[in-house]
Amino acid sequence: MAPPGRVVPRKLLADELRRLRSQSGKTLEDVAAELMISTSKLSRLENGQGRPQLRDVRDLIRLYGLEGTSLAEQLRSWTRAGQEKPWWTAYSREIPDELGEHVDYEAEAAVARVYTIPAIPVLLQTAEYARAYYRSTERWRSAEEIDALVELRMKRQRALTDRPGKPPLELVAVAHETTIRQLVGSPAVMREQLDHLIERSTAPHVELRIYPFTAPPLFTFTCMYAHFEFAGDLESGFVHIENHAGFRSITTADEVAEYKGHHEELRRHALTPDESRALINSVRQQHFS
């Protein structure tokens, strides 16, 4: 089965279609009956699942009396974008759809707030660090599969530097102190990685803070997650929680807001960016020289 289209346009379209139906006072069953489609198909459309079809959106535009409006054109634009093949589908054999969705969020979000343990944040990893990490944690992978996964990680990092039509992704990363002390690959790999962290963390749109061993244990300090915030329309954003079993998505506004608060609490207890760079340099000198 072909992966669905780009995530964010589908979510934007879904949010607006739900709002329009609610505003009209119609039920899901009412609208489905008027369009002569199944309620399950309309439900998928209103939940951003699968690829939206222009004919269905055309019929909804007519039903809600939007023909000739700027909103109607916006709905069509989101529909067309939601049909586009995501760039990560070239790696769909190596990654689950949930990770593909995560990559789409990185490509579209204005801000990504991430917390990582025990690995360096993906968007700040070197290729050799990523390769060594995969070799150690996913030993069933072939060398070719690992090369493809490393290539994917390197392409994901373009969100920080090269996004046509959009400013670079703003990255606010909190990484547990474990991440800079855990030996991945070899001392040489770690030296390169820590040097890279120090350099990349000075970029104006990148904030890196180390959560030190001396900080108190907090509610979310044992799991990796990312909170994605979008400019304009998707006010609440999304949260992806990651563990060895995969991703868990959080989309309800209240829960998303809670995780944004959890991340801010981690950030408050973490070292400042300058203190973090000093610690990274100290660890490099003491353990990986």
What do you see in this structure?
By secondary structure, the chain is an alpha/beta fold. The protein has two domains: 7-83, lambda repressor-like DNA-binding domains (434 Repressor (Amino-terminal Domain), Orthogonal Bundle); 87-287, Endonuclease, Chain A (2-Layer Sandwich), CATH 3.30.870. It contains twelve helices and six strands. The protein has helices spanning 7-24, 28-35, 39-46, 54-63, 70-83, 97-108, 127-137, 143-156, 178-181, 187-200, 253-269, 273-287, and strands at residues 111-116, 170-176, 206-211, 224-229, 238-243, 246-250. The chain has a six-stranded mixed β-sheet with strand order 3-2-1-4-5-6, sandwiched between helices. β4 (224-229) and β5 (238-243) form a beta hairpin. It starts with 6 loop residues before the first helix and ends with a helix. It holds the Pfam family HTH_31. This is Helix-turn-helix protein. Residues 17-71 form the HTH cro/C1-type domain. One of its GO terms (molecular function) is DNA binding. InterPro entries: Cro/C1-type_HTH (IPR001387), DUF5753 (IPR043917), Lambda_DNA-bd_dom_sf (IPR010982).
> Percent of residues in helical segments?
40-55%
Form type: elongated
* Individual helix count: 12
Unreliable stretches: none
**Name of the CATH architecture of the largest domain:** 2-Layer Sandwich
Structural class, by secondary structure, is alpha/beta
- N- to C-terminal distance: 49 Å
Largest sheet: 6 strands, mixed
Give the overall pLDDT as a whole number: 92
Order of helices and strands: HHHHHHEHHEHHEEEEHH
Strand content: 5-15%
CATH class membership of the largest domain: Alpha Beta
Write down the domain tally. 2
Give me the side-by-side strand order of the main sheet.
3-2-1-4-5-6
**In CATH terms, what is the fold-level topology of the largest domain?**
Endonuclease, Chain A
Count the beta strands.
6
Please give the radius of gyration in angstroms.
21 Å
